[in-house]
Amino acid sequence: MASTEPSALLSHLYRTDGSATFTQNGYTVTGAVNGPIEVQRRDELPEEAAVDVIVRPAAGVGGTRERHLESILQSTLRQIILIQNFPRTLIQVTLQITSTPENESAGSKLVQASSNLAILPTLLQTAVLTLLSASMPLSMTLTSVLLAFDSKGNSRNIVQNPSLAQFQSATSIHVLGFTSRGELLVAESEGSFTMEDWDEVFETGKALCCGGEDAIDDEAMGGVALDEKGDMSMFVKSVLEHKIEKDLHWKD
Fold first, then answer.
1. Model confidence over 150-178: pLDDT tens digits?
2. Residues 6+ away with beta carbon under 8 Å from 82
3. How many angstroms from the chain centroid is the CA of residue 91?
């Protein structure tokens, strides 16, 4: 069964301005960013930088699923990158999906979920870590979470990073992304739910992304992992602290 705990590795690719590999809930995505670079005249924006996001699937060629994910990522990244600082340039983010969860009923066969939401938090987190690796000027950072809401009669249950079985049986699926200021920036949902259900999902998602100041375990798979009591904002901070400590090791 795939681990739901996140881990990350920064600046491990050459010939890129920034790179990151992020793993969570069975998904692994490797990201690279180049920019600001020269942009084609037809894509040039006179007062800000153009942001181009490319999502490549684990197998085969990209289709409408990848184009939809790219549109969500592009609109989100434009909100956090200081694009006004780089007019008439291009910031290109490439995200390669390297592994997906295994279907327990189909051996090692890769899962191609009908929903786009399962992998969206991993793509978002990889993109943000890649930008941080490149020291890209940002107005704020972003953390995201995948939640499955299961409502059966009087029973109400919210599952963080659900398994494939939980994902398929849930009443509704939600991806929430919060900025470092605690503001909701991304909200994608599928399924049937009430406003009361949404309020409960919102509060849970905000607590998982922004709340808590507990300890972080900083050694896992050569990168950084999130402790059970931690939150995603603390995880991102610990990833950067780990990178800075490694970069300054030569001073010791």
1. 887 677 899 998 888 888 889 999 999 99
2. 137, 138, 139
3. 18
